[in-house]
Amino acid sequence: MSFLYYKYSDFLKNKYNNKVYKLPINLPVTCPNRDGRISVGGCSYCAEIGAGFECLSGSVSVSEQIAKNMAYMKKRFKAEKFIAYFQNFTNTYMPFNDFKNFMKDASEIENIIEIAISTRPDCVLTKQLDYLKELKEKHKINITIELGLQSANYHTLIKINRGHTLSEYIKSCIEIKSYDFDICTHVILNLPNDTITDTIETAKIITALNNNHVKLHALYIIEGTKMAEEYKSGKFNIITLDEYKQRVITFLEYLSPKISIQRLIGRAPEENSLFVNWNTSWWKIRDEIEEEMKKNGLYQGRKIQYINPIEYK
Ligand code: SF4
């Protein structure tokens, strides 16, 4: 099959030459956009559960969470190597000693070959990166920092109360890259009022900042959030599934083909949801996107001429 987009599974095979699985870990942490440091409301779409509805409880120790998930993955998928994935809320927002202990615990477990840390672009500290570099060198593991950007449109980021705009993201990417860590950026392609122009600009900025991975999501709306109220009172409409698929394809066309795609659409909890993935399963949407690309000869990186400077002729 001709190249459509760079799948994360292919990236893992190329890099590790082995079956590698991510093990989600839930830490007892919060987020400065929820605890009052930046705001108390959080991002307008954020439910209290954060992003980690598939995780074990945060009261279970890191090593125990890893052991349980590892045993399950070994049995079910015959997996051999693992990525410790700190998934929920803001995993760099805690006392520095706690951060060090959690990361140390994960890095010392056999068959953990990488640590992935999900966080906000405005919460990545130099001393944390320094410590991760020590662990990387000591245990020969890789480090990926997963940054929530969601949209390059900073007006949108203000409207959804992200508590940071584009500049914090740019600053953080430059610093993380100076440590030679990987970056995975999370993007929501259908935030209220964002257009296809924002889709394109987001892909271009992620490419320009030399990211390694991207995770795409469609917006899901959970009861009890500010966005749920706005949605119910008709303050915005959600684009159609066909439009979402078109945005994914356009995003991929403007994205460097060196960036791996961890997801084309997220899996979301259906409980308490007002809107999830147009009531369509994520894998069906993924298959339809791939089908559409195949049919029309479209592929990741097809429109990245913008990375070349223009020389006078
Ligand atoms: S940054 Fe993440 S955890 Fe914090 S409020 Fe926003 S979505 Fe929720």
Ordered list of secondary-structure elements with their pairings:
Blueprint: H1 8-16, E1 20-25, H2 62-77, E2 81-86, H3 96-107, E3 112-119, H4 126-139, E4 142-150, H5 154-159, H6 166-178, E5 182-188, H7 196-208, E6 213-217, E7 221-222, H8 226-232, H9 241-253, E8 260-263, E9 273-275, H10 282-296
Parallel strand pairs: 1-2, 2-3, 3-4, 4-5, 5-6, 6-8
Antiparallel strand pairs: 7-9
Helix pairs in contact: 3-4, 7-9, 9-10
This protein binds iron/sulfur cluster.
Unreliable runs: none
Q: According to CATH, what is the topology?
A: TIM Barrel
Q: What does the radius of gyration come to? A: 19 Å
Number of domains: 1
Q: What structural category arises from helix and sheet content?
A: alpha/beta
Please count the beta strands (DSSP E, at least 2 residues each). Answer: 9
CATH class: Alpha Beta
Percentage of residues in helical conformation = 25-40%
Strand percentage: 15-25%
Instruction: State the shape.
Output: globular
> What is the average per-residue confidence, as pLDDT, rounded to a whole number?
94
Q: Mind describing the biggest β-sheet? A: 7 strands, parallel
Element string (H = helix, E = strand): HEHEHEHEHHEHEEHHEEH
The CATH level-2 architecture is identified as: Alpha-Beta Barrel
Strand order of the largest sheet: 1-2-3-4-5-6-8
- C-alpha end-to-end distance: 39 Å
CATH homologous superfamily placement: Aldolase class I
- Helix tally equals 10
Which cofactors or ions or other ligands sit in this model? iron/sulfur cluster
Description:
38% of the residues lie in helices and 16% in strands. It is an alpha/beta fold and 313 residues long. It has one domain: TIM Barrel (Alpha-Beta Barrel). The strands form two sheets. The chain has a seven-stranded parallel β-sheet with strand order 1-2-3-4-5-6-8, sandwiched between helices. Helix 3 runs parallel beside helix 4, helix 7 (196-208) runs parallel beside helix 9 (241-253) and helix 9 (241-253) crosses helix 10 (282-296). The longest helix has 16 residues, at 62-77.
